[in-house]
Amino acid sequence: MIKKLQNGFEYVEISNKAAIAKIALQGAHLFHYERSSEIPLLWLSDASKFELGTAIRGGVPICWPSFGNNNPKLPQHGFARTVMWQLGEIQELDEDTTQLRFSLEDSKESRELWDYKFLVELTIRVGKTLEMELKTTNCDNVPFTITQALHTYFNVSAIEDVTIEGLEGKKYLDALTLQHHTQVDEIRFSQEVDRVYQGVEDTIILKDANREIELKNSGSKSVVVWNPWIDKCARMSGMKPDAYKEFVCIESANAYEDKREILPNKSHTIHLSV
Ligand code: BG6
């Protein structure tokens, strides 16, 4: 099941009755998920590089142990998305569902950037629904604090068709202006959007011209909604200038006020089902 690109970049390909998926060993990065007879759920940039040390543009990058650039010692969105993870067990739970496990432990390199002992385990269930569970265990003898996200890029018919429901009434930090606001209506897109919603425990519904997608999160109370729009998209790596029309990111996060402290020998888990 492990496949290799010509440059040696490795990924796992999963296929069952309900869906197909592809997951890179670098970053345990799910970059393709497609239910039978549906268009792919996840967006993947056709300009994305697949090479060691560069994050894939699209799918579900894992931002860990830091979301964004709130820790100046770490790269943007942490280091987990650009290092090799260990592939564990692959199990057929039934004819519709395949479960994969990946893990990442601290190393000499990680301790130079972030000096803690840890174990991060990712479980992915590929089936009629997509489930992702990211568990962080503190293996050190001092507490540590993380921010993190399952940075999901959803494939949409066209950005102007998109609405996101379920965040009405929620407070958010506008990362572009650093101002705090409250969301009044459903979200629509006609400019760059980069927001961290707080206190989110409800189902989020993403609608476009083709379908309606329900996202359920647990363990995370912050949700990042992001689309770079025209100018930022033109400046971004691994993206063609028009790419902003094809995706929206709804990221299941522990970010800003929702950062989490994990005590020694304790764990924290976030779970996304879509
Ligand atoms: C989002 C951030 O989570 O990720 C954006 O809110 C950022 O500000 C985007 O531009 C992409 O980040 P990166 O590091 O993958 O280019």
From TrEMBL:
Active site per the UniProt annotation: H151, E251
GO biological process, one term: carbohydrate metabolic process
SUPFAM superfamilies associated with the record: Galactose mutarotase-like (SSF74650)
InterPro entries: Aldose_1/G6P_1-epimerase, G6P_1-epimerase, Gal_mutarotase_sf_dom, GH-type_carb-bd
An example molecular function term from Gene Ontology annotations: carbohydrate binding
Catalytic activity: alpha-D-glucose 6-phosphate = beta-D-glucose 6-phosphate
Chain sites annotated for binding substrate: R57, Q76, R81
Enzyme Commission designation: 5.1.3.15
Keywords: Isomerase
Pfam families: Aldose_epim
PANTHER family, per the entry: APOSPORY-ASSOCIATED PROTEIN C-RELATED, GLUCOSE-6-PHOSPHATE 1-EPIMERASE
Family the entry assigns: Belongs to the glucose-6-phosphate 1-epimerase family.
Protein name: Putative glucose-6-phosphate 1-epimerase
Originating species: Sulfurimonas marina
Phylogenetic lineage: Bacteria, Pseudomonadati, Campylobacterota, Epsilonproteobacteria, Campylobacterales
